Amino acid sequence: MSSGYRIGPFEVESALLTHPAVAEAAAVGAPDPERGAVVRAIVVLRGGEAGDQLAAELRDHVKEITAPYKAPR
Question: Which residues lie below 8 Å from residue 65, measured CB to CB, with a gap of 6+?
């Protein structure tokens, strides 16, 4: 739950797995002082390098498939 929203990890993981750069994904809740908890994602890439640009791309990808409040932080 984040800011009163129920967010299931399966939905976030499934959205991440549809991105071509992602081989495996796991979504977990992480404590947050403002929201109570936020979604964190751990991904295994198919290849290439991780970086801020890819992280932003993955967040946007999840927002497009699910809802903006479900995107990992």
Answer: 15, 18
Return d(Cα 60, Cα 6) in angstroms, integer: 19
CA–CA separation, 1 and 7 (whole Å)? 6
Helices (H), 1-73: 9-17, 52-65
Q: Which two tokens stand for residue 73?
A: 């932080």
pLDDT digits (tens, 9 = 90+) for 29-42: 888 898 888 889 99
Burial degree of 25 (CB within 10 A; 0-12, 13-18, 19+): buried
Report how far residue 66's alpha carbon sits from residue 11's, in angstroms, rounded to the nearest whole number: 8
What is the rounded distance in angstroms from the CA atom of residue 48 to the CA atom of residue 54? 10
The two tokens of residue 12 are 């976030």
Tell me the pLDDT of the chain averaged across its residues.
Answer: 88
